[in-house]
Amino acid sequence: MEALPADARPGVAAAISATARAAGAPKTVASAVRKAVRRLLEASAPPPPAASGDDGAPADDPSVAMDVEEAAVRADLRHAAADVALALAASGALPRTAPERTLLHRAMAPVLTERADAVLQKKAYRTLTHLVATARPPPGPADADADAGADATAAAAAAAAAAAAADEALSTLVTDVAAAVGETAASARSTRAALVTALITARAGTLPALSSAFVAELALGARDAAAKTRAGATAGLAALARRYAADAPGGVADFLPVLAAGLGGRSHAMLAATLTAMAKVMYDYRGEAVADARLAATVDGLFCVPGEGGDAAAAAAATRDAAMAGGSDSDDSDEEEEGAEDDDAEDDDDEDAMADTGAARRTPSASSTGAPGVVSLLLVHDKREVIRSALGAVKVATLILDRPRLTATLPGLVPALVTASAVATKAEIRLRVRVVLERLLRKCGEGPLAAVFPAEHAKLLAAIRKRHARALASRKAAREGAADGGGASGAAGGGGGGGSGGGRALAFDQAFAFAPEETHGRAAGAGDHGGVDAGGGGGGGGGDDGDDGGAMEAELLGLDAADRRRRGRGGGRAAPADRR
């Protein structure tokens, strides 16, 4: 393999893997693995020290160039041996009980910490992933490794011994992979996430060991800049949630507190990643929460902690200092964000509603019926990255919680939302908060929302209620016009979503994120359903509980009638007649 150029090696490796898989000769495959491991170890061994007669060698000494060449040759030999080992492991022809598996594991484990050679590190992760995938026999009534003529007792004993050996090997691998977390090259994170997912799927180690080793890493990886790393980390979190659902006594209800431990981190990136991961789990297991009272109580407690008067206030005060840091909602970076204009983009009602709030940061208060949950507390964090993730989790809650459960969370949730809007210095945050408040108004009704709305922010509630009433009136007029035959095509385009729960189910990314048109008011009413259906397209229709696109956009952006017409015709550009 080392004699081949680098671009020819993938084809040869694929041929080796296919040949080993088709040959059906496990002894030959095991012998080839031993040879590959020996070559890898020989190339990895440090070279013998060069003999030197003097204290030092001159800079132009030929031995220096020879050392560089020898290092390059050794590196090429390591890569060639790793390619052969990877091809043999990918073939799946190595017996599960073969001792060569242990040799291959021990040879690849040191490579996991060699951050300088990212390509070799990725090959090691891929090799170990294939070993993990074939470590256990496939599910079936009989063990493929047991002889057909052996009696049942001997077969059961052999299967038990093989399972114990696999458990020990996988547990050792979990330890080795966890120890290499800080030495992974950026380009190898996706292959590492694939190995972690394989370990979780193969039921390696115990749930506490897997959680302590990989939960924080997977949560951060789910927000990585690389798409492959995000996909791999998300798959790992989903696999771990399934493992908890199958093996833990409390199911997924035991997994959410494990995830919530990340909220104790000091890094705002860790807080935001944990909130996103928790929202993902809540969304994926929304159906189970309907039948599992403990899971439902755990989810609801993230937004509002039930309590009686002083108990609720004491619980909120005990966690508030840990969850919030005073200051302004700023990011560490100096990048400029779009929508930095604050008051100029608001209508008069919103300016009046926010005028009496002051600039000082305020904390959400506990009521007699409940205190803010941990997600509600993080709505007033001093980092916008955390606030965005918390708002995304709240948005998911408005989609997955039915009306009674969502109404029960209002005492702890609404004061935090109003406070977040009052102290925000970016229009983007205020728009997102209003999207959530309008969803709560449509789904829970005006009475429950007004009962927990802070009195000093009554103007904000009045503005939201007025916009909602105006949107309903506008849609009613549009439906009447369509019934008269004047707007049939418009009704057909805008009314396809349905406000009665007949819309399509959203993917998590759609449920968690705030689309640009949503934060500008055109689709803020798309999700008023008891489940997770998203009704209403962007055409201002979509159902009885949706929002009119043009009216909401004009209200939130302060557009006059002419501006609204221009945006409707030209996507924000002036129409040809206006330009003339």
From TrEMBL:
UniProt biased composition (Gly residues): 483-500, 527-543
Biased composition (Low complexity): 551-560
Region spans: Disordered: 320-370, 480-500, 519-580
Signal peptide per UniProt: none
Chain intervals with Acidic residues compositional bias: 329-354
PANTHER family associated with the record: ARM REPEAT SUPERFAMILY PROTEIN
Protein name (Swiss-Prot/TrEMBL): Ribosomal RNA-processing protein 12-like conserved domain-containing protein
